[in-house]
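Hi team,

As requested, here is the filled-out complex form for the zinc ion run. I kept the field names the same as last time so the parser does not choke. Let me know if anything looks off before we queue the next batch.

— J.
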Amino acid sequence: MMGGTLMDRTMTGAYLPGNSTVELREAPVPEPGHGEVLLRMKASTICGSDIRCIYHEHLGKGPEGYQGVIAGHEPCGQIVKAGPGCRRFGVGDRVIVYHISGCGVCNDCRRGYMISCTSERYRRAYGWQRDGGMADFLLAEEKDLIHLPDELSYSDGAQVACGFGTVYEGLRKVGISGDDDVLITGLGPVGLAAGALCRKLGARRIIGIDVVEERMQLALRLGLCDEVLRSGQDNVAEVRGLTGGRGVERAIDCSANDVARATAIRATRKWGRIVFLGEGGRVEFNPSPDIIHDQKTIFGSWVTSTWLMEELVERLVRWNLHPADLVTHRFALEQVADAYTLMASGKCGKVAVCFDEELQS
Ligand SMILES: [Zn+2]
Ligand SMILES: [Zn+2]
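And here is what came back:
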């Protein structure tokens, strides 16, 4: 049955067979073991990486390999059962799940970056190598949990798990302040999150580039960009034109597109910084004129750490910033197939599968 309760022995979960469809199947409600909790799912958002690596076909290898589990790596919910040995969280707590469960004891895990856990045996991403959030319930490890304050909704929290956390990390690496004009290439959910966070960090002017009309309009309507350019041959000149001929101080690539990446590099002024967040693809540039002679730095940034995610949650409350404002469409678990179809079309902001009270808001 749909919309399972804790009394049920089975729940519904969504699987991605890899041919652009979604399969709903019954699965047993898991029992939390030592140091584990059972969450009643409340919000589970779809990520670009789900579409890129799992939905159309199973492309990923290693950390991006999909092992036929329940999908959804951006889960947020409420603890309904806690196993023995839990130290901080208990029944009733509202929590975000850091979406990769690491071994906990390798160097990367000790830094809080379970995303790059080096243990082949114990590193398991929710929704990729262990069951994720597209189900009535989710079994999670206590060490993967981030407290969700009352000021934030579960749909806010679901986006902290991956999108906003990833952007916050990248912005911390390049540093954003009131000195900066910022270029964002790619205005999908990650690019929109970059706009929202750059605003709160005080960026002077935010310029976005995209090809999808809906996304360009959304960025302007939500006030996340001051200027939006349609992707094209003249983007570098256009950005320079908007910045006194010099270019931006900071550029954030959220597109993974080779042309847009080159634009991000070339439209950045001397001494500027560029961060690449978009995954996959290629880029071609000429090191001497494009970065060396202009003293530029290119950063790579992959997801974030548990401690920076906690810091982000604190900032979201302080700034009264609600990631759920980027959610343009909400679906019940029964309609999860439509949710993936829409996300794959790109004609949307963030797409969420919601449960209980989160479906109404
Ligand atoms: Zn993600
Ligand atoms: Zn580890």
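Two things worth flagging: The chain has eleven helices and 17 strands. The mean pLDDT is 96.

Thanks,
J.
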